[in-house]
Design brief:
Layout lengths: L1 H19 L18 E6 L9 H8 L2 H4 L2 E6 L6 H6 L5 E4 L1 H9 L4 E6 L6 E6 L14 E4 L4 H13 L8 E4 L4 H6 L5 E5 L3 H7 L4 E5 L10 E5 H6 L1 H20 L1 H11 L8 H15 L9 H13 L20
Parallel strand pairs: 1-2, 1-3, 6-7, 6-8
Antiparallel strand pairs: 3-10, 4-10, 5-8, 5-9
Helix pairs in contact: 2-10, 2-11, 10-11, 11-12
Length: 333
């Protein structure tokens, strides 16, 4: 009797469910997403690919530019004039030194320095140790080779003389082109103006003992960094912030882990590996101290003011430049 009651109860419940009906299972709508393509930006390098650009390879490899929504196109090579292209808004960024910015602005080119990479102007005066040239004053009466009477090397050389009160006529200067290491080895000159992370490295690898006078220890010159223009800062500040932030992340990662940075560089630049690996490692090791900064990416107003004063005295520019408009630290975290 009890089992019949239980059976009747379940039949009644089942009948009620069937009578009421259950909602039909409708297909679930598939959400759609709009993929925003990255913003393409152009940066003028003014140089050929090299291990010195390891932070860029690191930033690319680790997706730092992509995370900022940027796709970077590089214009490599000497034939590109970054200042003119950026000033004319035909390129978004260029790697330049502070003196180039002041020279451009003296000619009303609206270029702006937006983030520092090299905390020092990376130019040295190098000599073989047996010459005994250890201080700027030791250069008086000596024959010094320059790659040319133009560009960063010449500016730094003049800055060194200006900062140490040495007259130009007190030193014998020769234009030797980009043959500094050979000219020193062959005794053609007593000293040569070089990039601190290049020729001294070559000479060390050849077993040569050298003395090195670092111009940045005397002359206040703003080193290599990222420049853009006033229009980009006004109309597209987000790409300036993103580019500077991604670059500086690459710089910091390279400082923190140079071995990993070298591996990434060789992956992107195979010619930096193989037989050239030892040289690439040495160049990277010599470059990293030039990138370190108490606040990565920042430059100081006092340095810009000192550089502007020197450049007018040396007649690199013939008018006063408002340095407050020549640079900004607004995009530094």
């Amino acid at each position: 009797m009890r089992s019949n009651l239980v059976r009747s109860f379940f039949v009644l419940v089942l009948g009620s469910i069937l009578a009421i009906g259950l909602p039909a299972c409708a297909p679930r709508a598939v959400p759609t997403f709009t993929v925003t393509p990255p913003t393409e930006v152009t940066v003028v390098m003014g140089y050929i690919p090299n291990v010195q650009f390891a932070p860029l390879y690191v930033a690319e490899e680790k997706g730092y530019f992509a995370q900022e929504g940027l796709k970077v196109n590089y214009n490599w090579g000497f034939e590109f004039d970054g200042v003119k292209l950026v000033g004319a808004n035909e390129a978004d960024f260029a790697f330049v030194t502070g003196d180039q910015v002041l020279q451009a602005r003296a000619q009303n080119v609206p270029i702006v320095y937006a983030g520092n990479w090299y905390n020092a102007f990376p130019i040295s005066v190098v000599s073989l140790a047996d010459k005994g040239i250890k201080t700027p004053q030791d250069l008086i009466g000596k024959k010094v080779g320059l790659p040319g009477l133009f560009g960063a090397s010449y500016t730094a050389w003049r800055g060194l003389l200006y900062a140490t009160d040495i007259k130009e006529q007190q030193v014998k200067v020769e234009n030797i082109g980009f043959t500094q290491a050979q000219a020193l080895e062959q005794g053609i000159v007593d000293a040569a103006v070089v990039y601190a992370n290049n020729e001294p490295v070559q000479l060390h690898l050849l077993g040569k003992d050298v003395n090195q006078i670092n111009t940045w220890e005397y002359a206040k010159l703003v080193g290599n960094g990222v420049a853009t223009n006033e229009a980009t800062i006004r109309n597209r500040p987000e790409i300036v912030r993103g580019f500077v932030r991604a670059l500086l992340r690459g710089v910091q990662d390279t400082i923190n882990n140079p071995d990993q940075a070298l591996q990434i560089t060789v992956k992107h630049l195979p010619e930096a590996g193989g037989e050239a690996l030892a040289t690439s490692r040495a160049v990277l090791e010599a470059s990293i101290p030039l990138w370190k900064n108490s606040r990565l990416g920042e430059t100081r107003l006092a340095d810009w003011q000192a550089m502007e004063e020197f450049m007018r005295a040396a007649e690199f520019i013939n008018t006063r430049v408002d340095v407050n408009k020549a640079f900004t630290n607004d995009y530094i975290q």
